[in-house]
Amino acid sequence: MTSSFEFNTYPARLSDAERDRALKVLRDGVALGRLSHDTFIRRMELALAARRPDELAVLTADLSEENRFSRVVFGAVEAVSGFTVRLRRAWQAERLPKLLLPHPGTAHALRIGRDPVNGLRLTHESVSRVHAELIRQGGVWVLRDLGSTNGTTVNGRRVIGAAVVREGDQVAFGRTGFRLSAN
């Protein structure tokens, strides 16, 4: 006979490791195109609310793990793809015109844009009138986007506000690219 004070024997809460494994399977499923974004969001919510291991198993049952051969093949494809991207970037970097950094003792910012009063005037239509500025602060060069329409990038990443740059970096103002150089 059981008393009314006895409880079920399964744990009240899943371990973080079990939940993390299920969430990883769901993330991999959406990354590989096996789940739609909406299905992923719904299953993620259910995984976070799950209380038993069998509830997690139901959420990932149709997302079977890949076999070892598939992982090796996909890993090789990722490595080759990453290499070609790096090769293309290196090839383009050598072809970019140099943008000489101002003398380190210069106290004024180098303004960049289409306006004739800028220190570096670029006439390309993708460059804003007052596009960006380059200034030496605390011993480092800082490139600041000044609210340009087509953006400023450093090494392919868009600058939001400001970014520290150094010699050899690839910078672009709109669709006009340069490689920073000290000489």
Automatic annotation (TrEMBL):
This protein's record includes keyword Phosphoprotein: yes
KW Protease (keyword) present: no
Every FHA domain range: 110-159
Gene3D superfamilies: 2.60.200.20
A Pfam family recorded for this sequence: FHA
Keywords: Phosphoprotein
InterPro entries on file: Cell_Proc_Reg/RNA_Proc, DUF1707_SHOCT-like, FHA_dom, SMAD_FHA_dom_sf
CDD domains: FHA
Record's protein name: FHA domain-containing protein
Source species: Streptomyces achromogenes
